Amino acid sequence: MALIVQKFGGTSVGSVERIEQVAAKVKKFRDKGDDIVVVVSAMSGETNRLIDLAKQISEQPVARELDVMVSTGEQVTIALLAMALIKIGVPAVSYTGSQVRILTDSAHTKARILQIDSQHIHKELKAGRVVVVAGFQGVDEDGNITTLGRGGSDTTGVALAAALKADECQIYTDVDGVYTTDPRVVAKAQRLDKITFEEMLEMASLGSKVLQIRAVEFAGKYSVPLRVLHSFQEGPGTLITLDEEESMEQPIISGIAFNRDEAKLTIRGVPDTPGVAFKILGPISAANVEVDMIVQNVAHDNTTDFTFTVHRNDYHNALQVLESIARDMGAREVIGDVDIAKVSIVGVGMRSHAGVASRMFEALAKENINIQMISTSEIKVSVVIEEKYLELAVRALHTAFELDAPAGKGE
Ligand code: ADP
Ligand code: ASP
Ligand code: MG
C-alpha cells in the first residue's frame, strides 16, 4: 500500500463534470488500496477573475486582503471534490491550508512554506478517508491567510508529499508531461520520459510554467519522487529524477524555456567610477525589485551604459528609481523597453559539449533575430530578444538542437 499525493490543476477541475472525472480517477487509485491525499487548484480562470475584481478597487490592493480573497478559489474546489468523492462512495474530507496548518512566513502573495503539520491528515487517512487539501494557500503565525504565488498549488502538493513522506507526488495537468518546450508554441515539441531536478529547476525558473519553481526546489531538497501526468489520458508522463547518468544519453539540450514577463532598463552615459553597479542596483534592490540579467559596457568617453532586466510588474517602479539615480549620478539618459522576451536553452549535457552557445547564436542569426543580452551558466544559455520574434526563435532553436519530433509524432 502506497501513500500518494495527487495534485490537479485549474483546467482539470475547471467544471463540475471535470471534478466528477477527477473523483472517479481518485477512486480508481483508492480501490487499489493506496492512501490518497489530493491537492487542488481553483477552477481555471477563477484566480484571475478574483485578482481582476480586486484591481477594480485598487491598482495595488493590500496584499493581506488580496490573499483572503484569492484563496477562496481553492476553498470552492476542495469542497466540490470532497462532495463528488462522497457521492461515489469514497469517504473524503476537505481541508483548507490553515486547517491542515500549512505554516508559512508572512510574505503575502508570495509566502514560503515553513512547516506542515501532518497530524490531522494522518488521522484522516487512518480513518479511511481521502483528504482533499486546498493548494496555493497557507497561514502565518498570526493566523493570517497567505498564498504561495501563482502556480503555487504545485508547491503545496510537493511540500505535502515531503511532509507526509509520500511514495510519490503526481502532478496532473492539461499536458501529458514535461515537453522539450511549451507544446502550445511548438507543435513538434516532444514529451520527455525523464528530466533531472537541476534541468527542471532551470526550465521552471526560466519561464516554463508547467511546474512552479518552488515545487521543484522542494522536490529536489527532500528527494520527493515527482511525476507530471495528464489528468484524463493514460500515459507514463515525465519523471523528475536525481539520476543524471541516464539523461547524459539524451541530447545536449533537454529543453527550451521562454519568458515574456520581463522588461529591460538601460541607464546611459554614467560616469565610469568604482561602485557604479552598486550605486545603480543598490536603490533598485532597496525598492524590493529583483534584477535578473545585467550587462555593463565601457564607452570611449569614460562613461558606461548599464542595462538590466526586471519582472514586468516591477517595471514602472524600477524606472522611477532609475530616473532619480540618473539625476543624482549625472547620467545621460534612461531608456526602458517592455517589448522583450527571454529565450533559454537548458541541458546538463552542455557541461560535456563545447560550442553550444555559438550554435544557439548561429540559429538566431539565420533568422535575422538580434540578440540584446546574453547570460550563461553551466547548464543554460539565455538571450534577450525583441518579443515579436519569440515564437520564431523558439521554433528555430528547437529545430537547430534536433529536438523536433519525427514527422507525425508531434501534437
Ligand atoms: P495547471 O493549471 O494544471 O497547473 P499550468 O497551466 O500551470 O497547468 O501548466 C501546464 C501548461 O504549461 C501547459 O498547458 C503548457 O502550455 C505549459 N508549458 C510550458 N512549458 C511547458 C513544457 N516544457 N512542457 C509542458 N508544458 C509546458
Ligand atoms: N489558483 C492559483 C493560480 O492560478 C494556484 C494554482 O493554480 O496553482 O495561480
Ligand atoms: Mg500550474
UniProtKB/TrEMBL annotation:
One of its GO terms (molecular function) is ATP binding. GO terms for cellular component: cytosol. Keywords: Amino-acid biosynthesis, ATP-binding, Kinase, Lysine biosynthesis, Nucleotide-binding, Transferase. The keyword Amino-acid biosynthesis applies. Residues 265-348 form the ACT domain. Substrate binds at T47, E74. Pathway: Amino-acid biosynthesis; L-methionine biosynthesis via de novo pathway; L-homoserine from L-aspartate: step 1/3; Amino-acid biosynthesis; L-threonine biosynthesis; L-threonine from L-aspartate: step 1/5; Amino-acid biosynthesis; L-lysine biosynthesis via DAP pathway; (S)-tetrahydrodipicolinate from L-aspartate: step 1/4. ATP binds at K7, F8, G9, G10, T173, D174, Y179, R184, K209, V210. It catalyses: L-aspartate + ATP = 4-phospho-L-aspartate + ADP. SUPFAM superfamilies: ACT-like (SSF55021), Carbamate kinase-like (SSF53633). One of its GO terms (biological process) is homoserine biosynthetic process. It holds the Pfam family ACT. Its EC number is 2.7.2.4. Belongs to the aspartokinase family. This is Aspartokinase. The lineage of its organism: Bacteria, Pseudomonadati, Pseudomonadota, Gammaproteobacteria, Pseudomonadales.
